[in-house]
Amino acid sequence: MKTIGHWIGGQHVTDVTSRVSPVWNPAKGVQQADLQLANLDLVNAAVTSASNAFVSWGQSSLSQRTKILFEFREIVNSRIDELALVISDEHGKVVSDAKGEVQRGLEVVEFACGIPTLLKGEYSDQVSGGVDLFSYRQPLGVVVGITPFNFPVMVPMWMFPIAIATGNTFILKPSERDPSASLLLAEMWKLAELPDGVFNVVQGDALAVNALLDHPDVAAVSFVGSTPIARAIHSRAVANGKRVQALGGAKNHSIIMPDADLEFTANHLVAAAFGSAGERCMAISAAVAVGDIATPLLERVSELARAVKVGSGRDLSSEMGPVITRESQQRITDLISTGEAQGADVLVDGRGIVVPGFEEGFYVGPTVIDNVTTNMDVYTHEIFGPVLSTLRVQSVDEAIELINANPYGNGTTIFTSSGESARRFHREVHVGMIGINVPIPVPMAYHSFGGWKDSLFGDHHIHGPEGVRFYTRAKAVTQRWPTPQLESGATFSFPISR
Length: 498
Ligand code: NAD
Description:
This protein is an alpha/beta fold. It has 2 domains: about 1-250 and about 455-475, Aldehyde Dehydrogenase, Chain A, domain 1 (3-Layer(aba) Sandwich); about 250-435, Aldehyde Dehydrogenase, Chain A, domain 2, CATH 3.40.309. Helix content is about 40%, strand content about 25%. The protein contains 16 helices and 23 strands. The chain has helices spanning about 40-55, 60-80, 80-90, 95-110, 115-120, 155-165, 180-190, 205-215, 225-240, 260-275, 295-305, 325-340, 375-380, 395-405, 420-430, 465-470, and strands at about 1-5, 5-10, 10-15, 20-25, 30-35, 120-130, 130-140, 140-145, 170-175, 200, 220-225, 245, 250-255, 285-290, 345-350, 365-370, 385-395, 410, 410-415, 435, 450-455, 455, 470-480. The protein is globular, with a radius of gyration of 25 Å. The relative contact order is 0.14. Nicotinamide-adenine-dinucleotide (NAD) binds near residues 225, 248 and 250.
């Protein structure tokens, strides 16, 4: 059995005494590796390595950082296929989808390549006689990223390119379910000549996470994962005086207005609900059909859902792979059964699907459920699987009210041909990312990504301009170079401009 370890100080590190956790191949349903889970000593070693590296990296020139970022971008870009296979084998998503996630992560690296422009400060000449004032931003020190299983490359890349570009050193604690891509990225940083200790990977579970949250030399924490853990991470890190952004789970709604283009909408809904087996934080899991479009829409959505080709991520004809674990498969199928028992209508049923040649894999087929109400478990839970629940309402106001009553606020979409409905929707809905005839409104890297309410704890959204602010702190300098002509003398009263 392969053993997966850590990356500290620019090299692979293993610890034969550590606890281990299984890493599965979800397509085959077999264990493929043992992951070493960090103990306290290993976490401390990673923080020491990152602290030591910060002494020089925090002082490195913008030109040096930019050169390394460009080099890293080229290396990742030339090895997308290799990364995609590693992702697919541990996560299960189809290879084309895995390539897409690397591409979206690379966009953040490309954004970070512009760090000299992004870190330009502000300067005010002659704020008083002979006095100038300028402000600029400096790195924080050692920063930590704790990431979920569903995007093992893209989500870490929302964080570390900007953290490193702004002069911090970084410790990544990836998901224990698909940890290998993080080590491949570490090797790529080394090839790009990033100094040892600037990027580190600590594999582990709650023990490692809590040790990082409690460590006095960790300055900031970026977290992406489920809401209960995000909430706990935020409280603990804040109590320890750290800067923290903690992105949580989601229940993303899509309003379908009677004037929407039915074929266009059905195609996009199916892709947004079942792409990556519904394991995207921006997946559409609740369709809110307004008026009489519900029945024809669901007929077409059901037809398309039945046609989705489910199979191993490595099979190039597959459109949708397995879910992450057997427990996840069981949880999703149980929720579908509960929905049925609570009175919803299962129009397309993904329970019990078998993929020939992959009988032990963790598959759930696309599932479409109609007549869901807001008190049902399929609505109140973040299913994180290929399940599209449909709620029927009579007006756009009722739809907006329903979305605003939901505790999550990550992404939401409207399908319509009415500018008036779209404008009302984007202005009135309490959600961080809005799509208008765009099913998965993930902002580009040069904007910031983040939800509202229970989908994000903390003040900063992630990547883009807010990422630069998150990983830096402001300094304002007031300077005077006295000359006899300009010297006005000291005063005991509070200084004012003259
Ligand atoms: P998760 O919360 O189980 O795990 C996320 C990270 O937290 C992992 O690194 C894990 O090891 C760690 N962790 C788990 N339990 C912990 C504990 N008790 N104490 C400390 N650390 C712990 O999430 P997941 O199942 O890996 O990912 C799926 C979730 O992530 C979904 O809820 C999804 O919506 C969310 N997600 C959100 C976004 C977003 O941008 N808002 C993006 C991707 C995923």
